[in-house]
Amino acid sequence: MKRLMQIFVILLCGCVWFGQAAFAGPSVVVSEGKYVMGDLDSKKDAKALALIEAKRLALEQAGTYIASSTEVRNFQLSKDQINTLASGIMSVEVLKEDWKLSGENMVVTIQIRATIDTSNLKDKISRMQEGEGTENYKEIQNQLAVLQKELSELKAQRQKEAAAGAKEPPTKELQEKHEDIVKRMSALEYVEKGNGALATQRWKDALDVFDRAVTVNAVMVDAYAGKSFALYMLRRPEEALASADKGLEIDPLSPRNLGVKALILKDRPDQVDIALGLINKALHIAPGSQRLYRIRGEVYIKMKRPRLAQADFAAACKLGAQEACRRAEMLRDRVGPKRQFERR
What we know:
Blueprint: H1 2-21, E1 26-36, H2 43-67, H3 70-75, H4 79-89, E2 90-102, E3 105-117, H5 121-129, H6 137-163, H7 172-199, H8 203-216, H9 221-233, H10 237-250, H11 255-265, H12 272-285, H13 290-302, H14 306-318, H15 322-335
C-alpha cells in the first residue's frame, strides 16, 4: 500500500510538472488555407486569401490551446481577450504553397506553421488586461465578415454572367473592386495582429505591423491609431501626433484616433483643454469604450480635477479595466465625500 502511494505521488507530481511545462515555452500548430480562383482573381489575390484562411484556422487552434491554460482560467478571460492574446503571441511561417487545377479553376493551398509563444503567459495576460486593442476584436471580425460577404457576392455575380453566356472579360471596375476588398481584408489582418501586440505591450512589434497595414491599405484608419499609440509609448510624441492626424484626415470621427490624440496633447499644458474636447467627442461617438474613459481620467488628472478623474476611472472599471478599478479606489480615498458646489 505504501509503495502504491509513493507511485501515485510521483505520477501526480509528474502531471503537475507537465501541466506547467506545457505552457512554459512555444507551441506549434500547422494549418492550411485554400482558395478557388475565379476570373476576378489574380494569383496575388488568391494567395493572400488562402493565407488569411490559414491564419484564421491557426488562430482558432491557438485560442483553444491558450484557453486551456491554468493562467487563463485564473484570470477568467473572455473569448475576445483570448483571441486578442493569441494574435499577439502567434508568429507565422509559410511552409508550402501548392497550385493545382480543379476542373476549370486553379486552387491554391497555403500551409503554415504558427508558433505560439506561451512563455511568461501570466505576465502577458496581466499586461494585456490594461493594454490597447482588446476592445476592437469584435469590430475587426465584423468588418472581415462584411468584406467576405462582398467578395462572395462579386464572385457570384461574375459566375451568373458566365452562366448566361457572357464571354467578355471582367470589367475594370469589377476587378478594382475585388482587389480593393482583398487589400482591406489583408490590412485588417495586420491591424488584428497589431492590436494583439499592443495588448501585450510589445510596442515595437506593434509599430512594425501597423506600418505593414497602412502599406497594404493607405486608408486603414484604425492602423494609424494603433501606430500612433505605439509611437506614443515609444516616447516619439511628434510622430505619434502625425499618425493620429493622418487617421483623422481620413475619418474625422474616428474615436480611436481622437482618443490617442487626446492622450498625446494632455501632456502639453497649453493644449490640455483641446485634449478634453477631443476625448469628449470620442466618448460621444463610442460611449461604451473603457479605454476612452481611462484617457479622459488621465486628462482630468492633468487638469487637477481628481473627482472627475475618479468618476471616469470608476466607469472604466465597470467596463472591465482592472487597473482603472485601483485608480478609482485610490482617488476615492483622496477626494472624500462630494461637496455640493462641485459640478462635472
